[in-house]
Amino acid sequence: MTTLEPGSVPRLRRGVRLSYDQTRETHVLLFPEGVLVPNPTAAAVLSLCDGVEDVAGIASALRERYTGVREEEILDVLSRLGERRIVEWT
């Protein structure tokens, strides 16, 4: 397993797509094994997982919108999503 740190760069795995469901007014994560409805925090993190921005940059971007954003929490969310094969690291 990859050691995750603020310099790690996440991206959605091939075949995974985050979209917004207008009917349910929530984000949905579509992937080959199924569908996941992420909570708003996870959706905000996933929307910034572009394979270019590192975790520190994602945290910085989220701090512009929300208070109390910590890199450790972002790493925790991404680690759990990595275990589900939704996120990978470049």
UniProtKB/TrEMBL annotation:
InterPro entries the UniProt entry points to: PQQD (IPR008792), PqqD_bac (IPR022479), PqqD_sf (IPR041881)
The entry's keywords: PQQ biosynthesis
Top-level lineage group: Bacteria
Pfam families cross-referenced by the UniProt entry: PqqD
Metabolic or biological pathway, per its Swiss-Prot or TrEMBL entry: Cofactor biosynthesis; pyrroloquinoline quinone biosynthesis
Summary of subunit composition and partner proteins: Monomer. Interacts with PqqE.
Protein name, entry field: Pyrroloquinoline quinone biosynthesis protein D
